[in-house]
Predict the 3D structure of the following.
Amino acid sequence: MIQNKILEHLKQFDELTRLEGGQFGGILGRAGVGKTAFLIQLSLLKLLKNIKVLHLSLNEPINKVCLWYEEVFKRLVENIEKQGDTVDIEINQIWEKALSQRFIMTFKEDVFKIAVLEERLSDLFEQKIFSPDLIIADGFNFDDESIKDILSELKNFATKKNLSVWFTINIHRDEKPDECGIPKQLSIGYDMFDSGIMLWPNKNEISVKILDRENKKFETESKLYLNPTTFLILNR
Amino acid sequence: MKGDIKQIRNIGISAHIDAGKTTLTERILYFTKKIHAIHEIKGKDGAGATMDFMELEKERGITITSAATTCVWKEHEINIIDTPGHVDFTIEVERSLRVLDSAVLVLCAVGGVQSQSITVCSQMGRYKVPFVAFINKCDRSGANPFRVIEQLHKRLGYNTVAMQIPIGLENNFAGIIDLITMKALYFEGPNGEDIIEKDIPENLLKDAQNKRSELIEAVAMFSDELAEALFEEKITADILISAIRRATIKRQITPVFIGSAYKNKGVQSLLNGILNYLPCPSDVQNYAIDMDNGETEVVLASDASKPLVAFSFKLEDGPFGQLTFLRVYQGTMEKGGTIVNVRTGKKVRVGRAIRMHANQMEEINAIPAGYIGALFGIECMSGDTFVSPEINLSMTSMYVPKPVISLAIKPKDKKSEVNILKALNRFTKEDPTFKSYLDEETNETIISGMGELHLEVYVERMKREYNAEVIVGMPKVAYRETITRKANFNYTHKKQTGGAGQFAKVGGYIEPIKDVDFVFENKVVGGSIPTQYIPACEKSFQRCMEKGPLLDFPLTGIKITINDGASHAVDSSDMAFQAAARGAFLEGFSKAAPTILEPIMKVVVETPPEFQGSVMGSINQRRGIILGSQDEGAICVIESNVPLADMFGYSTVLRSLTQGKAQFTMEFSTYKEVPHSIKEELVKKAAEAKKGK
């Protein structure tokens, strides 16, 4: 089955990106390195495992987010060896199922407040429309000091609702990290993050470095890497 | 008609449903002495408001068509078009705003900015129409004009300036304070005809002064003269009025007036505001395209002596023939003159010219620049430009939104059949948002429009005006059939029992294909099927695509490849191979896991956030998949994919779920396989229909 093949292919990725309820994970990288593609693959993986995902995006319209998913899913499927007459039917079924587990919410950055998010989500809970297990958050501005308050509020909310959250965190080439090598954008709310992944361009691929939380370093290089052309996660 | 164009105002009255447009217009006509008695909408006297002249309008208490009239206030001629507030009749607003110079946006002091007020504002923006706002119903419980001013600013981004503040609200609404003259105005007499001016009550003086300061500071941003006067503390009423007028015409500010049309308060002040702050025809620049000069833009002059340029914006079929409403932008439309329809190139002689007052006509000899009038006996379409023969300018047409809802209709009896056609011909000509066509697949007459109310009104008008009664149903959904896997076929058509026989064999495979309806590929080698018979095979396969074997729905997404076959020297023919191809198709189709597809619509709902949950629930109930929601502060946009079969009647449901504050758009997205339960239901219905035949 195609679904099993995709899950098998992304098994290590799944282990790397596991979070408990109330925990935060950050995907760091410079602009254009592939954070969103990484995040979308993370989301698709969880969706295929029947985990309900709320995709939260600041400033991007729904259409654009949908296109990201379609494109990444298409590439994922192309990358898997397929056999049999019913492949297309199966792919459609997987896709439909994934869609039914996903909910996209987009906000304009200037009107976004956690209180508003809570209100919107409460509507969805109460009406039994959608109840996420995982939030993936794209487009938050970690350069602004006020992100700490947002993270703090979101942490309370996520803990209360037993939700885990993965963020994309944009870092800058010309900025020096702190003495531990942790980018400033993550340092701001470091204590709130339970997991971190750094995407780092490295010759012909994009390396995936894992945060050693205790020692505050991004050193361990995972066996996973990103193909710089397709931005698909691959295993060495 | 007034000689001085500066004393003309062409205005539209627009708003959300029930904000009070028609009542306001009735009061305007009364205070300008155009009418001598006030009639309420659906009033006890049964007469109905003047501008609602259609019987249906009087009965339902809604404005359906826009109506034009003219009145005189302080030696200024005001030409008014009162428009409907329902989104279903949006074309009336669209065409009116296209030809008017300015508008009065009426808002309810209780309801505030509502969905259709938002639509009307975007329509005014489209045609860059300057406007003033009138916050009506200040006598109602819950009235809060300051909240409405804030909404206009925050939700719609207008630079609102309060021109007045209320003296009391709700039951205690007694009058208004004019912030220009700094006087309190009370409206007394049996119908508020007598305006009594007094000093501002002590308890409101400070508020009035603050509001006046806000007004001056807001306007001074756009007026150097006022800014200087403010700095020198020498502000006069004339300087202030002049600055407000200039800024209003440039759409830099929106003056806001308040009152209660029903209680006859504030209308005269609004009339003064219309004269003071809204443009005359020569204040507004209008453009046309020079068709003889590479379609360059040309500014039209509101000059009655120049060559004619006029725009037809509304057609009405009446007992005396077609009435064409026009706005003259340049030159003069004279009775007996010759004009050219730019679209058709035909010359037309101007017959009778008239001016309208609701449904009454006044014959005139000419329509000069800056005026709206109507002509009899001109064949044209809405949006046509008429010019003098010596020029070739064209005006851009108005925006015509696409229909969002359809209904199937059929005549109740024989005599209605012919009349329906006549009615549909007329209505579709008059209203570009109302469409009708014969659905060849289902053989039904389909009418489509902007909403259920829109279609309901036309069905009723067919009955009343054409004696054509119809039975209304829902259109049949345009399902499709397809296959989901590849299957081989190898079919022999043989009839060789004696005499001239038939023989043909066709082999190959059928497989699904995306994004196209049908593809045929010939991979026959070695002449197993003679070349001359290949087109017959292809033709037969194509014919099979018209009606599917499952339920007679058209087929889609099928590729057929033939790679083998056999023929007979004598008995093979085009006909034989057509029959073989048909058999091959049926054989392959049945083995290819056929299924039924239904149209899926992309549905986008815009709603205030408080109704988000209900709206999403309603979409879920319709087998919809919610893609997501886009939060834009005051409005939440919900995008979803919903089967068309479950969308009928949704506009009514949405309206009631959201108090009329939400709106939705719907467009075709894709075809998708129907769920098993729906397939069974369709098979059952098809079987019943066949039994019936």
